[in-house]
Design goal:
12-stranded antiparallel β-sheet, about 1600 residues, about 5% helix, mainly beta, globular, 11 helices, 8-stranded antiparallel β-sheet, about 35% strand
Length: about 1600
C-alpha cells in the first residue's frame, strides 16, 4: 500500500502540471528527491541535453537504461567535473569533461550519439569514444526505463535486482541544484523539450528554499528544504542527529573466520561499478598473521588486500603487469591485537588513448607507506564483486596470497569509488539489498576466543603449559591438522610420589593413540579407525571420570577403562604440547617420545577442563620461531627437487623431508658430507646413556663398507639385564640378534656385503615387530618370541665392545658355528637359545661407517661437533671432498639478506661454509626479546659467536691457529648439546663453553640477517657485537636447525643490492672498485679497461665528468640525424644520461624511425622519469614513480631494451622491468632522428615540452651526442638557448634552500687512511708506490733479497689529524698486523690472535676496569683512523711476539694479585698450540704440569663470559709506539737481566739511528705513502687517496697518485739492514 500511495502522489503531481513543459526546477538533494521524465529513444543518432546550476561538488544528474539488460547511460557530477558512464553493448566506457563546474553558474551538458561514437559536450568542450557493438540502437521504446534526474525513486531502488542495469546507481549521491531545458533529439533529428512525469523533493525555479534563510546543519551535513522546514542529510559525514550534531559511533564487527560480507552484481545481471579513482580505508585488530581483509574485482581485474606474516599485502592486476605492494616494517607486526588503520589508494592516469598508468599506494597507521605502479591498456577500475573479511574458499579469490579468512575485529570500513561511498559494515547492519552477510555476524568488537591456530614447523618444537589438573576427572579437546604420520601431541608426567602416572597423546602411522597410567598400569587406546594425516582438520576430545573414559576423534568414539585399582591421576610438572623437551624422561611405551618425533602440523581450539588455552599466546612468549601463529602448510615442496646428491624427497606438512640414507651426505637437503669413521679392528665408538634405559621402539640406520666377511657393527650392553640388540656381519650377510627376556630372535638380510662398496642398513623395531632392510631390498619383517617388548641397555657399542665398558655384564658377542650357518637359507630367521654351545666370539669391525642415526640423533655428526659428554670415539674420522651447495656472494659490506627467524628456542644447530679475504664483518645476527640475541661475526680473521640467553652475554672465539680470511672454504658449526653447553667448531677445531645458571631458552624474534644488517641497525646492535660493517665474501651450505634455505632464492623475504647467487671469487685483475660510478671493468691481456657508457661519466676509471650542456629558459634543442640510407635497425638499445632539472614535465630526448612509427621517448611526468617505446605494436611505458628527479640534483638514468622487454633504473635505486605479454615486435627499424632537450613534430617549428636544466654524459648505443656537439660535428645541430658547460655545477639553485651537487654512486674510498695518514709504515717486498704511467719504467725500490736477512721493523711517527677528544670507552680488537688481510701460512707467520685459540681472561669472566696485569687485552672501538696504535710487520723468518692478554700453554698467571675466579663457565679445546716460554716480567712463577707423552696438553679457555651490565676492560693505550720483540730466553738473575736490558736498548737505538739516516736518503724526493708488497702474498696496501685497488695492486690506466704494481727489475736494492 505504501508503494501505491507514492505512485498516486507522483500521478497527482503530474496531473497538476497538466503536461506543461517545465523550463526549470530545483532538486533539494534529499535522500528521496528525484524527477522522472519520459523515455529517451535516441536510436543510433540521438542526443540529450540540459543545463544545470549547483554548488555541490558531486551528484547524479540523470540515469536511464534498457530495462535491465546491459545498456545504460549515467551522467553525474564528480568533484566539479561531468562524467558520462555508458554501455552500448561493447563494454562500459567513461568520458569526463570540465573542471570546477560547481561554481553556482549555469552550464550546458549534451550527450550525443552517432552510430559507434558517443560524445560528451560541456559548455562547448567535447570528448568522445567509439565502441564496437553488434547493434548501435539504445534499447527499445518498449523496454527502456524512464529518465531519472537527480536520483531514483525509492521503489525502483528496492528492486535493484530486477529493474536496473546498473544497480550501483542507487548508491550515487543525489543532485542538489537547478536543472532546466531538458531536451531530447530522436531518430528524426528534431529537438523536443521534455515534460516532467513525476517527482519528489522538486521545487519550481525561482522559489527560495528554507535553507536560504536558515541552515541548521552542522559538521558538513547538507541542508535541504521540505514542506516542514529545513532538514539535514548526514549520510555523507560521520555525524548523526537532526542537525548532524552528534558524532556517529564507528561501525564495528567481529569475524571469527567463518563470517564475511560480500556482493556479486553478476548474480543479478548488473553492470559493475566503474571509476578512475578509488580508496579503501579500514581499521582492524587481530592476533592472526594471515587472512583476507578486502577484495574487489571484475573479471581478471582485481585488488586483494590481506594480512600475511603479520604484514599488509596488496595485490593488483588490471590487465597490465601484476603488482604487489607489501607493508611489513622491520620489527613491527600488525597481528599484535591492537587497532591498525589501512588506507589503499588506487588511481588511473591515462597517458594516451591506449595506455594508462595505475598508481597504488598502501599506508598503515599513517606511518608506513609503500607505493607501486603498473601500466597497461586500461582506462577505468571496474568492480562487480566485493568481499570483506573472507570468502567461502579464500584461496580461490584472484590474487590470493593466503588461504584463511580474517579473524578479529573490523571497524569503519569505507570504500569510495569516485562519487560512490560505501560504509560496508553499516550497509550490512541496515540490510542493504546489494550486500550479503555470510555467517552470524556480531556488530561489535568482541574478544575472539583463544582458538587461534598455531603451526609446529619442526619436530624439535614444543610448547610448555601448566600441568593438567585432573586427579579424579578432567577433559581435554583440540583440533589438529597434518599430513605427517608420526608425532607426539601431548605429554604430562606424573609427580615424584606417583607410581608411574602419566598422560600422553601421540600420532603413529597416521592414527591417534592415548596413553594413560593412573599408577596401577598403563592403558594404550587406539582412538581412530582411519588415518588422520590427510591434511584436514580433526577434532579430538578426551573425557575421563575416575578409571573410565572416552576419547572421540571427529565422530568416532572409543571407551576405555584403566587397569588396576587406582582411581586418581597424579600429574606434576608441565604439560608438553607438540613434543617433549631435551632431558625429559618419557615412558618406554610412548614411542614417538623415545624416537624424538615431535608433532609437525597445526593445532587450535585447545580447551582444558572447560577453559580455553591460548596456544598463540604461549607460542609468542616461548618458541615464536618454530611455532607460528597461523596454520602454515606451504613452506616447502618436492616439486623444486630440493634434495641433493640423489636424496629422496618426501612431502611433509609445510616442509619437505630428504631421505639421505642411501647417500654419503646428511643434512636437511643431503648437502653436507656425512661424518665417516674408519675402524681398524681396535677402534670403537661407545655411547653411554648414563643410566639404564628402557625402550619399546628403535630407529637405527647407517652405511658401511668393508672387505671383511665378519665384524661387529652394533651391540647394546646392560648392567642389570641380559637384553641385547646386536648387528654383525657373518659370511658377508647382515645378522641381527634381538634378545628380550630369555629368548633370542635372529634375522638375516643381504648377501655379499663385504665387497668394499657402501651399503645402507635400516633397522626398525616397534615392541615385538622388527623390520630389517639392506640397501633398497624389500625389508624383512619378523616378531620376537615371548611377551617381553622392552629392551634395557646402558651402553651402545659400535665397531667393537670396548674393554673399559662400565657395565658389569658383557654380552656374549658370538656367532653361530659355520655348520649351523650353512644350514640356514640366505634370508631365513631363526630362534635359538642364548646358551648354544656352538658359538664363537664376534671379531671387531674393520672398515668404514657413516650416517649413523639412532632415535633422532646422528651419532657420528654429534661426535664430530664436539658432543663428547656421551660419546667415546677412538675410530678415525676421514675426510672426503668438500661439498658446496646454494652459495651466495655478498659483494659489498652493506649487502645483507633477511631470512625468517632462526628456530633456536631450545636447541641450536647452525652449519655453513664461508670464504673471504676480509678480516672483519658480521656474518649472522638475530635479535630477540629482552636481552636475547645471537650473532656470528668475523673479527680479525677469526669467528666469534656471541649470544645472550637473557641473563648475561657469552662470547666464544674459534681456536684456529691461523686466520680464516685466506680465500679458502671453511666450515662453521654451532651447536648446543645441552641447555647450558655451547660449541663452536671451525673446520676441525672445537671451542666449548658452558653457560652458568640462568635462562635455558633463546627467545629470538624478527629476521635472521645474513651477511650484515641494514646500515641503520649497526648503531643499535648489542655492544658485545664488534662488527660495524657486513661480511664481504661467500656463504654456502646453510643449515639452520634442520632447514636449508637458499639465501639467494626467490622466497627470501629481503635481499639487498650486491647479493648474488653463486660464489664469484676475487680476481687478481678486475676488481669491484676498479671502475667508479658503476662502470664495467673489461678484462684485457695483463690489464683492464673501464666501460663507462652506462655511467654518464668518462675517463679511464669512469670518475671524470662528461661533456655537459645547459638548456636555458629560452628553450633549445639538439638534433642528431643518422646519415641518409645508413639508418640502423636495433634489437637492443642501451641509453644512459645524467641530468639536473626542476621541471615536473619535460621531454628529455626522443628517437624516431625513418620509415615506421617506431620510437623511444624519455620524459619527465609529474617529476618522475618515464620511457615510452613502441616497436610497431603498441606503446610500452616504463618508469619509476617512487623517485622524484626534479629536485635540482644530479641523477643518472639507465635504460636497456632487448626486444620488447626493458629495464630502467634511476641512480642506484630499484631496477624496474617491463615484459609485455602477447605477440610483440622486437626490432627498432631505421633509427634516424634523435632530438635532445624536447621534441618537435615534423611539420612544426615549436618545441613541445622543452627540457630546462643540465644534461651530461649522454650515451645512446655507443654514440656520444653531447661530445659530438662539443666537437661541432655536422651531423648534430644545436638550436636555441643551449650552452656548453666547462664543468658540472654543484646543483641547480632552489628557492629557500641550498643544494649540494651529489653525483650518483661515486666510488667510495677504500678502507684505510686519508691522504697524509697511514703513510708511515714500510712493508717488505717489491712493487710499491710507482707513479709513472708506464709500468716498464717503474723501478723497484726495495726487495727482500735472498730471504736470509734479518728483518727489523721500522716505525715512523705518523702525522695524525687533530683529535678534539678521545673516545670515552675504548676497545681494541685483536691487532691486525700491518693492516694486511692475508693470514699467516704457518705458525711463525701468525699475527695476534691467530694461533692460541684464546680470547679473554681466565675463565672467560670479564675483569673490572681497575684490574691490573699485563695479560689483559685492551680493546678500542672500530675506527677508520689507521694510526691509533702502531702496527708491526714481522718477516717470514722470525716468529712475532704477540701482544695478547692470553697466556701461552704451560705458563703461569701473569696478572698481579689474585686471578679472577671462574665459577659458572668453562671451556674445552681439542687442539693444543705449541708451548712457549713464559714472558719476562711475570710476577708469578710458572707452574709446571706434567703430562704423559701420548696425551696433548690442555688448551686455555677460548671464550668470553661477562655480565650484561659490565663493559669490556678499559685501559689507557700506550702513548708512545712500542716495537714488540720476540720473547728472550729466561735470565737466571736480576743483574744479568738488567745488563741484557741495557745492551738491548743501546743496540736498538743504534739500529734506529742508522735506519733513519738511510731512509731519509732513500726516501728523499719520493711521495708519502710509499710501501712495498711481497708479491708472493696478497697483502692489501694502504692508498693515500681513494683510488680503485685490486688487492692492493692497481690495473689499467690510473691517474698519478694511484698505487699500482710494478715489474720486478733485474737489479734489486736492499731495503732492510741488520
Amino acid at each position: 500500500m505504501g508503494g501505491t500511495s507514492v505512485w498516486f502522489g507522483w500521478l497527482a503531481l503530474a496531473l497538476a502540471m497538466t503536461c506543461r513543459s517545465i523550463s526549470g526546477f530545483l532538486l533539494e538533494g534529499s535522500p528521496s528527491s528525484f524527477a522522472q521524465f519520459p523515455r529517451w529513444v535516441p536510436g543510433a543518432n540521438g542526443s540529450l541535453e540540459f543545463e544545470f546550476l549547483t554548488q555541490e561538488p558531486s551528484g547524479l544528474f540523470l540515469y536511464t537504461d534498457d530495462g535491465g539488460s546491459y545498456e545504460f547511460f549515467e551522467v553525474k557530477l564528480i568533484e566539479g567535473s561531468v562524467r558520462l558512464h555508458y554501455n552500448l553493448g561493447g563494454g562500459a566506457r567513461l568520458l569526463t569533461v570540465g573542471r570546477g563546474l560547481n561554481d553556482g553558474r549555469w552550464h550546458r551538458v549534451k550527450v550525443s550519439r552517432r552510430h559507434d561514437k558517443t560524445q560528451l559536450t560541456v559548455d562547448g568542450v567535447s570528448e568522445f569514444r567509439s565502441a564496437k557493438a553488434l547493434d548501435h540502437e539504445f534499447g527499445s521504446p518498449a523496454s527502456n526505463s524512464f529518465v531519472y534526474v537527480g536520483g531514483l525513486p525509492e521503489l525502483v531502488s528496492r528492486q535493484v535486482g530486477a529493474r536496473l542495469t546498473l544497480p550501483v546507481v542507487t548508491l550515487e549521491p543525489r543532485f542538489a541544484g537547478q536543472i532546466r531545458q531538458l531536451v531530447y533529439t530522436g531518430v528524426d533529428g528534431i529537438p523536443r523539450t521534455q515534460d516532467m512525469v513525476a517527482s519528489q523533493g522538486v521545487w519550481m525555479e525561482g522559489r527560495h528554499g528554507d535553507c536560504d534563510q536558515h541552515d541548521p546543519c552542522m559538521n558538513g551535513g547538507r541542508c535541504y528544504s521540505s514542506g516542514h522546514g529545513p532538514l539535514c542529510d548526514c549520510s555523507l559525514v560521520n555525524y548523526e542527529g537532526p542537525n548532524c550534531e552528534k558524532e556517529r559511533p564507528s561501525e564495528e564487527a567481529t569475524f571469527r573466520g567463518r563470517e564475511y560480507l560480500w556482493w556479486d552484481l553478476r548474480r543479478i545481471g548488473g553492470q559493475p561499478l566503474a571509476s578512475q579513482h578509488d580508496q579503501l580505508s579500514l581499521s582492524f585488530k587481530t592476533r592472526h598473521p594471515a587472512g583476507v581483509l578486502f577484495f574487489t574485482g571484475h573479471g581478471k581485474d582485481y585488488v586483494n588486500v590481506a594480512l600475511r606474516e603479520g604484514g599488509v599485502l596488496v595485490t593488483l592486476d588490471m590487465g597490465g603487469d601484476p603488482l604487489k605492494v607489501t607493508v611489513r616494517p622491520d620489527k613491527v607486526r600488525f597481528d599484535d591485537n591492537q587497532w591498525h588503520t589501512v588506507t589503499v589508494h588506487r588511481t588511473v592516469k591515462e597517458i594516451n588513448g591506449h595506455t594508462s598508468f595505475c598508481t597504488l599506494s598502501v599506508s598503515v597507521d599513517g606511518l608506513y607507506t609503500e607505493k607501486g605502479t603498473t601500466a597497461g591498456p586500461f582506462s577505468q577500475l571496474s568492480s562487480s564483486r566485493i568481499h570483506l573479511a573472507g570468502a567461502d574458499v579464500p584461496a580461490l579469490l584472484p590474487g590470493a596470497e593466503t588461504r584463511s579468512n580474517f579473524v578479529g575485529c573490523l571497524r569503519k570500513v569505507e570504500y569510495r569509488a569516485d562519487s560512490v561511498r560505501l560504509d560496508l559494515i553499516r550497509m550490512a547492519r541496515e540490510g542493504n539489498p546489494l550486500l550479503h552477510v555470510s555467517g552470524k555476524l556480531d556488530f561489535m568488537c568482541l574478544e575472539v576466543e583463544a582458538g587461534d591456530p598455531v603451526s609446529f614447523t619442526t619436530q624439535e618444537s614444543y610448547l610448555v603449559l601448566p600441568s593438567w589438573e585432573a586427579p579424579r576427572q578432567g577433559s581435554i579437546s583440540f583440533k589438529m591438522r597434518t599430513t605427517e604420520a608420526n608425532g607426539l601431541l601431548m605429554f604430562n608426567s606424573g609427580s615424584v610420589s606417583s607410581q608411574g602416572d602419566f598422560f600422553a597423546l601421540e600420532l603413529l602411522e597416521g592414527h591417534i593413540y592415548l596413553h594413560l597410567n593412573l599408577g596401577s598400569g598403563s592403558r594404550k587406546v587406539k582412538a581412530t579407525n582411519r588415518r588422520v594425516d590427510d591434511g584436514w582438520w580433526h577434532e579430538v576430545t578426551l573425557n575421563r571420570d575416575s578409571q573410565a573414559g572416552r576419547i572421540t576423534v571427529d565422530e568416532g568414539a572409543n571407551d576405555f577403562t584403566t587397569p588396576g585399582d587406582s582411581h586418581q591421576l597424579d600429574l606434576d610438572g608441565a604439560l608438553y604440547v607438540g613434543g617433549a623437551g631435551n632431558g625429559i624422561n618419557v615412558p618406554p611405551e610412548l614411542w614417538s617420545g623415545r624416537l624424538g618425533l615431535g608433532y609437525v602440523g597445526c593445532m587450535r581450539d585447545l580447551v582444558i577442563n572447560g577453559q580455553a588455552a591460548d596456544l598463540a599466546s604461549y607460542a609468542k612468549k616461548q618458541d615464536s620461531g618454530s611455532i607460528v601463529r597461523f596454520c602454515h602448510s606451504d613452506g616447502g615442496s618436492c616439486s623444486s627437487s630440493p634434495c641433493l646428491h640423489s636424496g629422496e624427497c618426501k612431502a611433509g606438512w609445510g616442509r619437505f623431508i630428504c631421505d639421505c640414507s642411501h647417500t654419503s651426505y646428511v643434512g636437511p637437503t643431503c648437502g653436507k658430507n656425512a661424518a665417516t669413521l674408519h675402524f681398524d679392528g681396535s677402534q670403537y665408538v661407545r655411547v653411554t646413556a648414563g643410566e639404564e634405559s628402557s625402550t619399546q621402539a628403535e630407529d637405527i640406520a647407517f652405511r658401511f663398507r668393508t672387505n671383511r666377511p665378519v665384524g661387529l657393527l652394533l651391540t647394546t650392553t646392560s648392567g642389570v639385564s641380559s637384553d641385547k640388540l646386536e648387528l654383525a656381519l657373518q659370511s658377508g650377510r647382515l645378522r641381527l640378534t634381538v634378545k628380550l627376556g630369555d629368548r633370542d630372535k635372529v634375522m638375516y638380510a643381504g648377501n655379499g656385503l663385504n665387497d668394499q662398496q657402501w651399503h645402507s642398513v635400516k633397522l626398525t623395531r616397534r615392541a615385538t615387530q622388527i623390520s630389517l632392510q639392506t640397501d633398497k631390498d624389500p625389508p624383512t619383517i619378523e616378531h620376537t618370541m615371548g611377551r617381553h617388548s622392552i629392551l634395557e641397555y646402558r651402553d651402545i657399542h659400535i665397531g667393537m665392545v670396548s674393554s673399559n665398558t662400565s657395565t658389569s655384564w658383557r654380552p656374549s658377542s658370538t656367532f653361530l658355528a659355520p655348520s649351523s650357518t650353512l644350514s640356514s637359507t640366505p634370508l631365513a630367521s631363526s630362534a635359538s637359545s642364548s646358551s648354544s654351545p656352538s658359538q664363537v666370539p664376534v671379531p671387531a669391525f674393520i672398515g668404514e661407517m657413516q650416517s649413523f642415526y639412532m632415535n633422532g640423533n646422528y651419532l657420528f655428526e654429534m661426535a664430530r661437533s664436539g658432543h663428547v659428554d656421551r660419546l667415546e670415539v677412538t675410530a678415525t674420522f676421514t675426510k672426503g671432498p668438500q661439498v658446496i651447495h646454494h652459495p651466495v656472494t655478498f659483494k659489498s659490506k652493506s649487502a645483507f639478506v633477511a631470512l625468517p627467524q632462526l628456530k633456536a628456542y631450545a636447541s641450536t644447530n647452525i652449519y655453513f661454509q664461508f670464504k673471504t679475504l676480509e678480516p672483519t664483518g658480521l656474518i649472522m645476527y638475530n635479535g630477540g626479546k629482552g636481552h636475547d640475541f645471537l650473532a656470528l661475526e668475523l673479527v680479525n680473521g677469526h669467528i666469534h659467536l656471541v649470544f645472550n640467553l637473557g641473563s648475561h652475554p657469552v662470547k666464544v672465539r674459534d681456536n684456529n691457529k691461523v686466520a680464516l680470511n685466506d680465500n679458502k672454504w671453511h666450515v662453521v658449526t654451532v651447536s648446543r648439546p645441552s641447555p647450558r653447553q655451547h660449541t663452536l667448531m671451525v673446520d676441525d677445531n672445537i671451542a666449548t663453553a658452558t653457560n652458568g645458571a640462568g635462562d635455558e631458552n633463546l627467545d629470538l624474534q624478527g629476521f635472521l640477517y645474513l651477511g650484515g644488517v641494514p646500515p641503520e641497525m649497526y648503531t643499535s646492535l648489542p655492544r658485545h657485537v664488534m662488527s660495524k660493517t657486513g661480511f664481504e665474501g661467500c656463504l654456502a651450505s646453510l643449515d639452520l636447525n634442520g632447514e636449508a634455505p637458499d639465501p639467494a632464492g626467490k622466497d627470501v623475504p629481503i635481499i639487498s643490492n650486491r647479493v648474488f647467487a653463486g660464489c664469484d671469487g676475487p680476481s687478481t685483475k678486475c676488481h669491484r672498485n676498479a671502475c667508479a660510478n658503476g662502470g664495467t671493468c673489461v678484462q684485457q691481456w695483463n690489464s683492464y679497461s673501464c666501460n663507462c657508457d652506462m655511467t654518464s661519466y668518462t675517463g679511464p676509471t669512469c670518475s671524470d665528468e662528461s661533456t655537459a650542456y645547459e638548456f636555458g629558459r629560452g628553450t633549445g634543442i639538439m638534433s642528431f640525424k643518422y646519415p641518409q640510407g645508413r639508418w640502423p635497425d636495433s634489437r637492443r638499445d642501451l641509453l644512459a644520461v645524467g641530468f639536473m632539472t626542476q621541471q615536473e614535465d619535460a621531454v628529455v630526448l626522443r628517437l624516431d624511425s625513418a620509415n615506421s612509427n617506431d620510437y623511444m621517448e624519455l620524459e619527465i611526468v609529474d617529476g618522475n622519469i618515464f620511457m615510452v617505446y613502441n616497436m610497431g605494436t603498441e606503446d610500452h611505458p616504463i618508469g619509476d614513480v617512487t623517485t622524484k628527479v626534479n629536485d635540482g640534483l644530479y641523477h643518472v638514468v639507465r635504460f636497456i631494451r632487448t626486444g620488447p622487454n626493458a629495464t630502467i633504473q634511476i641512480d642506484d635505486y630499484k631496477v624496474f622491468s617491463k615484459n609485455p605479454s602477447g605477440h610483440q615486435l622486437s626490432v627498432f627499424n631505421a633509427q634516424s632522428h634523435l632530438q635532445i632537450g624536447g621534441r618537435r613534430s615534423r611539420r612544426s617549428t615549436d618545441i613541445e615540452r622543452p627540457f630546462m636544466g643540465v644534461m651530461s654524459g649522454l650515451v645512446l648505443n655507443g654514440e656520444h651526442p653531447l661530445d659530438l656537439a662539443a666537437e661541432r660535428d655536422p651531423r648534430l645541430e644545436v638550436e636555441g638557448d643551449v650552452h656548453l658547460l666547462l664543468r658540472l655545477p654543484r646543483g641547480l639553485p632552489s628557492e629557500g634552500r641550498q643544494t649540494e651537487f651529489n653525483p650518483w654512486q661515486r666510488t667510495p674510498p677504500l678502507p684505510g687512511p686519508s691522504p697524509g695518514e697511514g703513510d708511515d709504515l714500510v712493508f717488505s717486498g717489491a712493487g710499491s708506490g710507482c707513479d709513472m704511467d708506464d709500468e716498464d719504467e717503474c723501478i723497484p725500490v726495495f726487495d727482500t733479497g735472498s730471504g736470509d736477512d734479518l728483518i727489523t721493523p721500522v716505525y715512523i711517527p705518523p702525522t695524525l689529524p687533530p683529535i678534539s677528544k678521545p673516545p670515552p670507552h675504548a676497545f681494541i680488537p685483536d691487532v691486525d698486523v700491518g693492516g694486511s688481510r692475508q693470514p699467516c701460512d704457518d705458525e711463525e707467520d701468525c699475527y695476534i690472535g691467530s694461533g692460541s685459540g684464546e680470547f679473554n681472561t681466565d675463565g672467560g669472566v670479564m675483569p673490572d676496569g681497575d684490574s691490573g696485569g699485563d695479560d689483559i687485552e685492551v680493546e678500542f672501538p672500530v675506527t677508520n683512523h689507521p694510526m691509533l696504535a702502531p702496527d708491526v710487520i714481522h718477516s717470514e723468518e722470525h716468529e712475532p711476539t704477540h701482544y695478547n692478554k692470553n697466556k701461552d700453554p704451560g705458563s703461569g698467571p701473569t696478572t698481579t694479585g689474585s686471578t679472577l675466579a671462574f665459577t659458572s663457565s668453562s671451556t674445552t679445546s681439542t687442539t693444543s698450540p705449541p708451548t712457549r716460554p713464559p714472558m719476562k716480567g711475570s710476577n708469578t712463577k710458572p707452574t709446571a704440569t706434567s703430562y704423559p707423552p701420548s696425551l696433548p696438553q690442555p688448551s686455555p679457555p677460548t671464550y668470553d663470559y661477562y655480565d650484561e651490565y659490565t663493559d669490556f676492560t678499559e685501559e689507557e693505550f700506550p702513548k708512545k709506539p712500542t716495537v714488540i720483540k720476540e720473547d728472550p730466553p729466561d735470565l737466571h738473575s736480576e743483574a744479568a737481566g738488567g745488563v741484557a736490558l741495557i745492551i738491548s736498548i743501546i743496540a736498538g737505538a743504534l739500529i734506529i739511528i742508522i735506519l733513519i739516516i738511510l731512509l731519509v736518503l732513500k726516501f728523499k724526493g719520493r711521495q708519502d705513502g710509499n710501501y712495498k708488497v711481497d708479491q708472493t702474498k696478497n697483502y692489501e696496501g694502504i692508498p693515500t687517496m681513494p683510488t680503485p685497488m685490486i688487492n692492493g695492486q692497481g690495473n689499467g690506466n690510473i691517474k698519478p697518485g694511484d698505487r699500482r704494481p710494478v715489474k720486478k727489475q733485474s737489479k734489486d736494492v736492499k731495503e732492510w739492514y741488520v
